[in-house]
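Work Package 3 (structural annotation) set out to generate three-dimensional models for the target panel prioritized at the project kickoff. During this period the team completed the workflow that converts sequence records into discrete structure tokens, so that structures can be stored uniformly alongside our sequence database. As a representative example, we reproduce one entry of 84 residues exactly as it appears in the project archive.
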Amino acid sequence: MDPLDRLVPYYRAFQRLPFIARRMIYVAFFMACFVIGVKTGKYSVELGSSFLIAAWFGIVWSTGLWRLWKPLLIILAIVLRTQF
């Protein structure tokens, strides 16, 4: 049996959850990544910063905040394009 075949029932069960429940699980996972990044940051800056960046992008995506940042990023791209 393929290892991915064992994961299919869990994936299907996860997809049956309501949208809000899935997003809350994502937020909890990315908050755990944030905590791991903070804890490992004092031992290895590269590893800690990797976790923190992944957590930041994941939290912004899973909470829907990227929709608020999108207009600001477009304005920033226009400003940077006109200056360089």
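The first helix runs from residue 3 to 16.
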